[in-house]
């Protein structure tokens, strides 16, 4: 009863797409290893942010300020990159959106570093906001 009739097996073989596991990846399909490494990197930055929040409260300082600037910028860059991937379609709009994303991320990181260097820093600024 569990065996498939021969006619159904032949029909399924004709309908299934041919798989070429020995050739190079097809155009537009990234390797699963690169996607896995990117996913792991995203999770690592998220966990790093979870650790930086108590560190910012317990021992504020320049190292934590600049680490927060880098981690927040990278986290936001990857998040907005996913929004672009999901909602922007067409070659030219994707290129324009990605260029805008890189400019925005660079300006964000530069602004946070400037704030850390010239002003009180991210940790002290958040503490000042909480004291209101």
From TrEMBL:
A Gene Ontology cellular-component term: mitochondrial inner membrane
Protein name according to UniProt: Succinate dehydrogenase [ubiquinone] cytochrome b small subunit
Biological pathway: Carbohydrate metabolism; tricarboxylic acid cycle
Ranges for region Disordered: 14-35
Reported function: Membrane-anchoring subunit of succinate dehydrogenase (SDH) that is involved in complex II of the mitochondrial electron transport chain and is responsible for transferring electrons from succinate to ubiquinone (coenzyme Q). SDH also oxidizes malate to the non-canonical enol form of oxaloacetate, enol-oxaloacetate. Enol-oxaloacetate, which is a potent inhibitor of the succinate dehydrogenase activity, is further isomerized into keto-oxaloacetate.
Sites where the protein binds a ubiquinone: 87
UniProt keyword Iron present: yes
Family: Belongs to the CybS family.
PANTHER family, sorted: SUCCINATE DEHYDROGENASE, SUCCINATE DEHYDROGENASE [UBIQUINONE] CYTOCHROME B SMALL SUBUNIT, MITOCHONDRIAL
Membrane topology: Multi-pass membrane protein
Chief subcellular location: mitochondrion
Domain of life: Eukaryota
Subunit (UniProt): Component of complex II composed of four subunits: the flavoprotein (FP) SDHA, iron-sulfur protein (IP) SDHB, and a cytochrome b560 composed of SDHC and SDHD.
Localisation per UniProt entry: Mitochondrion inner membrane
Organism: Climacteris rufus
């Amino acid at each position: 009863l569990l065996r498939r009739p021969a006619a159904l097996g032949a029909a399924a073989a004709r309908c299934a797409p041919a798989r070429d596991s020995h050739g190079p990846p097809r155009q537009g399909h990234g390797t699963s290893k690169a996607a896995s490494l990117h996913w792991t990197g995203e999770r690592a930055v998220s966990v790093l942010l979870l650790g930086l929040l108590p560190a910012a409260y317990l021992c504020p300082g320049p190292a934590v300020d600049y680490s927060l600037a880098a981690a927040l910028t990278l986290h936001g860059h990857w998040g907005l990159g996913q929004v672009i991937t999901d909602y922007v379609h067409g070659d030219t709009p994707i290129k324009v959106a990605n260029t805008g994303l890189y400019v925005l991320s660079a300006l964000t990181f530069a602004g946070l570093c400037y704030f850390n260097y010239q002003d009180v820093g991210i940790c002290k600024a958040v503490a000042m906001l909480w004291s209101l």
